[in-house]
Write a structure and sequence with these properties.
The structure is a homodimer of 129-residue chains.
Chain A (H helix, E strand, L loop, with lengths): L3 H4 L9 E7 L5 E7 L1 H10 L3 E4 L4 E4 L8 E8 L6 E7 L15 E4 L2 E4 L7 H5 L2
Parallel strand pairs in A: 1-6
Antiparallel strand pairs in A: 1-2, 3-4, 5-6, 7-8
Chain lengths: 129, 129
Amino acid sequence: MTEDWLNKVNWARDGLVPAIAQEAGTGKVLMVGWMNREALSKTVQSGEAVYWSRSRKKLWRKGEESGHVQRVKSIRLDCDEDVILLEVEQVGGIACHTGRYSCFFRKLDGEQWVVTDPVVKDPRDIYEK
Amino acid sequence: MTEDWLNKVNWARDGLVPAIAQEAGTGKVLMVGWMNREALSKTVQSGEAVYWSRSRKKLWRKGEESGHVQRVKSIRLDCDEDVILLEVEQVGGIACHTGRYSCFFRKLDGEQWVVTDPVVKDPRDIYEK
């Protein structure tokens, strides 16, 4: 595999770009993660989303603990070549570590962020085994 | 207007967070811009998307030159409070400075980024008046 397509990406100084995971079919935005070259490369090779965890400073295969992997249907790049858009099938129907369908479960209502989406599964049941 | 809701956002060290513009109705992801406190505040006040231009280092009301403003229908915040999701009505049906509907007009096909979306309007006709 050549790396030309990886070189096309306009990686930031820290080597990362944001990657949006959008659900195939519904078009719902599930989450935003960050990718470096290796994360994107592994995502393409495996067909499942791999991100770079900025907090843990390591590669993170989405769903490695929870089982909520993301099967990647397509990968898009924006005009500035610095944002990636993944079309994914979200296994388990839960993308968020809070046990919700999507990470965007808060909506601005006047001057308040209001939680609009329920917890589908208690995180303790997702992560503690 | 209090600023509690602005303080809830987990602004990065450079004062910015990514903001995704998603088209109301279709759910298509149109673009990703960056916002600082002032950009988000002005977006809420005006009801139209205002971003921070990292290249020009100034606030940028989307559509100020092109007329392709984004009317904001809702604003969401993710679990880590560091990504914003705007639901917008895209005036003119063109979000991208290349004259395309969406900025995500390139798709990975094998080892190549392939342009999948046509130019709707020549950028010279959008920006040169």
